[in-house]
Design a protein that fits this description.
The protein has a single domain, classed as 3-Layer(aba) Sandwich (Rossmann fold). It is built from five helices and seven strands. The protein has helices at about 10-20, 35-40, 60-70, 85-90, 105-120; strands spanning about 1-5, 25-30, 45-50, 75-80, 95-100, 125-130, 130-135. The chain has a five-stranded parallel sheet with strand order 2-1-3-4-5, with helices on both faces. It has a two-stranded antiparallel sheet with strand order 6-7.
Length: about 140
Amino acid sequence: MRILIVEDEPLLQTQLAGALHAAGYAVDAASNGVDAHHLGDCGSYDAVVLDLGLPQLDGISVLRRWRAAGRSMPVLILTARDGWYEKVSGIDAGADDYLGKPFHMEELLARLRALIRRAGGHASAELVCGPLTLDTRNS
């Protein structure tokens, strides 16, 4: 499993990367919005931990660009902005979850596990492979 951490605080970025590595994840990191947008647009991630207050390009803009480009990886916003209106704005922009700082690392890890589980557990009655579609509801 591969996680992208987007956090501009070096100490927190290091702590997050360490905890995720210890939990068995491969980790890439970005410390500004421009790099985050590029990595998320070009890479393949099972989940993203995204701060909002980033230099060069804010987290909401990064998220909106990913979603506009069709990038569907689960995104957990991790930020000190914890007002209800900011949570609504983040989720409406395409975030899958929102966790305010300060936080407990175990809670963040549990939320990531849930996001990854839900993303991989999407059940559909249709199986699609290229131009072929098999509807399992019909025999």
